[in-house]
Design a protein that fits this description.
By secondary structure, the chain is α/β, with parallel strands linked by helices. The protein is built from 6 helices and 6 strands. The radius of gyration is 15 Å and the shape is globular.
Length: 177
């Protein structure tokens, strides 16, 4: 249920299609345009010059923090550094909720981090439940746990129908990163 400010709902952007992070960035940009404070915490992403990092520098009240390495995480055997970085990201999210630091908190790739056991579903759920009634939260990434879907007000599943990657086209600057 939304608060008097209209904020306070939970969104889940999931599925195997492109656009989950992009959708959350669009929502963040819209919120920042109305003067809301936006904090995006990116899990499993780091040290790559993503276009959104540069763009956010030009938007007042829009901050992006990364908790990951530029390397891929091994789903079946994640490195301790990946677990540690995800834990730091989760702790940062907990602090943002506790301090009421943002009006919109985006936990980018948190669904994947939970699926790959970098963070626990119950820890994420505790953060979502502890949010101030005026804080909107977005959880992105493939593999959204049933618990996240259940608590969400809005769930959007991106479905891949066609993607150039299937024809050997690699990630493109300005489009995929």
């Amino acid at each position: 249920m939304a608060s008097e400010t209209g904020l306070g709902m939970v969104h889940v952007y999931t599925g195997n299609g492109k656009g989950k992070t992009t959708a959350s960035l669009g929502l963040g940009m819209r919120a920042a345009g109305h003067g809301f404070r936006v904090l995006m915490i990116q899990f499993m992403k780091g040290d790559i010059k993503y276009g959104e990092l540069e763009a956010a520098k030009h938007l007042p009240n829009f901050k992006i923090l990364q908790y990951g390495r530029p390397d891929f995480v091994d789903k079946n055997n994640p490195a301790q550094i990946d677990i540690d970085l995800a834990g730091k990201g989760l702790e940062r999210a907990r602090k943002a909720v506790q301090d009421g630091e943002a009006d919109l908190l985006i936990l980018d790739e948190i669904n994947v981090a939970a699926e790959w056991k970098l963070v626990s579903v119950s820890d994420v759920m505790n953060i979502v439940r502890a949010r101030p009634e005026t804080m909107e939260i977005v959880l992105t990434g493939r593999y959204a746990p049933a618990e996240f879907i259940e608590i969400a007000d809005t769930v959007t599943e991106m479905t891949e129908i066609k993607h150039p990657f299937r024809n050997g086209v690699l990630a493109r600057k300005g489009v995929e990163y």
